[in-house]
Backbone:
DNA sequence: CGGTTGATTGAGGCCCATCAATCCAGGTGG
DNA sequence: CCACCTGGATTGATGGGCCTCAATCAACCG
């Protein structure tokens, strides 16, 4: 939070992954954060780091789920397709989030996870987590917490991003995206393609484009580039207030 | 499923709740279904049965969550209110569903649960479930299953009931409501008020009313009364096909 | 019986989907 | 280096679906 130094929890550098796990930057917010160092020793070798380019899928709806993933950096979108063939983003995931919880129940993935930005994840085999949760009851609590987070996120999507006029939905999306901004000095947010915005907010790419253009003119979006922009948070808050007040 | 006799799992009738729990009709589908009889003995006295009339709230968004509830019969709707003040139903719950999972994490209720029909629930104190899950690891698995169910339900709501023209959304809602129909000989479904349909499908009561009237004329809804109707499943499937195919 | 609450139906207007044209950035090959 | 192509973004014109406003109706009840 306050930019303090992350301590080196572990000093065992024999395994290449050992260092990465022990001094992992997301350990405090991630599932294994509460685990004692002894337990961490058991798992280094089973954790694999993966890197994804934008638009690349981490896993796909309906496929066998043999692993869960902790997001180390970047943003992903979880999407589904309805019976009519329409694609719809149901929530976002960022730093510290755990994806693929269904795997713990031996169910296939319930959504497709697609990288929005450059993404780093840690792959955790289902079997490892199953064994570990037997000996470490704190893990069960952590898993439940993640499940509730996911549920809450999905419900919030339904309530805040699926109602009201298109302008308000876009504003709400920008607010949510600002939560996933990299902790860099200046807060540049990831700006989805118009097609993705459509899949998130249930609108056409033309409407999404019009709203973005409009917000550019109004000074809410400042330095708009192809896939990122600078957000004027004050102007955003004001615009949201105006949209909600009426 | 096939109307067979439910066996009497327990013969201890000393406590008034003992009989109800032991021969509970939902025990097979409910959270405690996997528990051995010894464990069931410990809990009778802490479980309270509650009855709700239509439109009555089981618990409210933001309130302290000291208990979870297993639905024995009837249908409830979980609703939230967004920053603009719009009410929105985020999912339904029926026989065997577990509500108020947030309680396990010491969080306040994340939604308001309102009875749609006559409802019977069993109130399970949070503390009881916490103690029990320590000694009975199977309970954790059960809880995770419920969480995933809720998540899946919410995401499905987003994908199937929040996209496409109003006619299709109403048809999808009817299909979903048919899943909650009482296991009676003839399948009469609960028909929400037009206002509730609006909160479920993000439309006005007038639009909802027009769609219902239209489906009455087409013979999809047959014996429409104030809060229930007979559903022509064949015609519904056909209408959905037509709405999706185009 | 008047009063209230919810459902229905109609008329008009607005928001957004649709269709279409143009623009822009990046990549490719001559 | 430029012509060319391509995928995405933008902007305009038009129409339709749904919201809004309003009147009527049905059911229930004090």
Residues:
């Amino acid at each position: 939070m306050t930019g303090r130094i992350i301590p080196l929890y572990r000093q065992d550098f024999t395994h290449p992954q050992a260092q990465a796990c022990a001094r992992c930057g997301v350990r405090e917010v991630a599932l294994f954060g509460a685990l004692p160092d002894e337990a961490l020793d058991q798992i280094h070798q089973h954790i694999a780091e993966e890197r994804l380019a934008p638009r690349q899928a981490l896993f796909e709806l309906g496929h066998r789920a043999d692993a869960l993933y902790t997001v180390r950096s970047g943003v992903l979108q979880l999407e589904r397709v309805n019976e009519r063939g329409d694609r719809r983003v149901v929530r976002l995931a960022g730093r510290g989030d755990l994806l693929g919880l269904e795997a713990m129940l031996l169910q296939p993935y319930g959504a497709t996870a697609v990288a929005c930005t450059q993404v780093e994840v840690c792959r955790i085999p289902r079997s490892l987590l199953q064994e570990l949760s037997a000996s470490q009851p704190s893990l069960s609590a952590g898993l439940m917490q993640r499940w509730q987070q996911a549920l809450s996120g999905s419900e919030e999507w339904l309530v805040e991003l699926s109602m009201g006029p298109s302008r308000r939905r876009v504003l709400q999306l920008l607010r949510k995206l600002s939560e996933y901004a990299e902790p860099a000095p200046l807060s540049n947010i990831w700006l989805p393609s118009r097609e993705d915005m459509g899949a998130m907010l249930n609108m056409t790419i033309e409407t999404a484009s019009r709203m973005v253009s409009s917000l550019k003119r109004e000074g809410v979006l400042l330095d708009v580039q192809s896939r990122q922009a600078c957000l004027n948070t004050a102007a955003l808050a004001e615009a949201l207030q105006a949209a909600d007040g009426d």
Remarks:
- The helical segments of chain B are 16-22, 37-43, 126-135, 137-160, 166-179, 194-201, 205-218, 233-245.
- The two ends of chain B are 36 Å apart (CA to CA).
- The first strand of chain B starts at residue 48 and ends at 52.
